[in-house]
Design goal:
The chain is of the alpha+beta class and 97 residues long. The chain contains one helix and seven strands; from the N terminus they run E-E-E-E-E-E-E-H.
Length: 97
């Protein structure tokens, strides 16, 4: 079992390997994907796969990251507030001439 995820993410399979699968037999594998602490909000498409004895299969999944740090939002609001204060200070000092 293998998984391709972005850098810093973790992927775990349960069970880690399957000794054999008979034709037309289905086996269930649970995959736990943990995003990194610095993951940004949005959709990601990690790839999971299995291979053995010359055969392989893969599947793409869509994962939506919804929780992200609000620090960059706060920094953006602070920059806008500073720009507005500078603009108001310039208008107050120089006014209309």
């Amino acid at each position: 079992m293998s998984g391709t995820v972005p850098t810093g993410w973790k992927v775990e399979f349960n069970p880690k390997s399957i000794p054999s699968v008979q034709p037309n037999e289905k086996k269930e594998v649970q995959v736990q994907v943990t995003p990194s602490d610095k993951a940004i909000a949005g959709d990601m498409s990690p790839r999971s796969g299995a291979s053995g004895r010359g055969e392989s299969a893969s599947a793409d999944f869509r994962i939506t990251v919804t929780r992200t740090s609000t620090m960059w939002g706060i920094v953006g609001i602070a920059i806008i507030a500073i720009a507005l204060l500078v603009l108001l200070g310039a208008v107050a000092r120089f006014g209309r001439r």
